[in-house]
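Worked example 3 (structure in, sequence out).
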């Protein structure tokens, strides 16, 4: 009489069902890494969008200048002009009308507010002047242009 294996049929009697797997299944590991990647991507974009003023996390390539004598205070208003001409105020992209309204609101709260324009090196001069004219039209006369310190500080 023939004896059958634990599988109940004419299987290979040398194959044991309780054997240890010698291969690693990387599918769950890959799934975990993909989920973590998505979480980090979403988190980093939220962090960049929540920044305010000069700490907005936006890369503006400022032109080099002399020793920096203007330091941003808590009441100062920093406006960034990106290389593509977009205006950024408080970490959010705004239109010219929204910027003008922000200048008017700031003038009402604190008339001595200093407006710091941080424009990328590639931004045309006319765009910087446009931002400065919006500030002057709202009654904010203290203007400064943000530059990189030559000493690299």
């Amino acid at each position: 009489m023939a004896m059958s294996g634990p599988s109940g049929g004419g299987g290979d009697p040398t194959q044991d069902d309780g054997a240890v797997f010698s291969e690693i299944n990387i599918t769950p590991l890959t799934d975990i890494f993909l989920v973590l990647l998505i979480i980090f991507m979403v988190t980093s974009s939220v962090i960049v969008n929540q920044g305010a003023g000069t700490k907005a996390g936006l890369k503006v390539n400022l032109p080099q200048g002399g020793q920096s004598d203007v330091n941003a205070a808590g009441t100062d208003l920093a406006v960034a002009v990106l290389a593509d001409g977009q205006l950024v105020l408080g970490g959010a992209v705004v239109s010219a009308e929204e910027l003008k309204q922000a200048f008017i609101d700031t003038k009402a709260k604190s008339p001595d507010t200093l407006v710091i324009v941080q424009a990328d090196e590639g931004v045309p001069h006319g765009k910087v002047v446009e931002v400065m004219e919006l500030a002057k039209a709202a009654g904010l006369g203290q203007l400064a242009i943000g530059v990189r310190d030559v000493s690299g500080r």
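Notes: The CA atoms of residues 66 and 150 lie 6 Å apart. Strands lie at 64-65, 77-81, 87-89, 92-94, 114-119, 142-145, 148-149.
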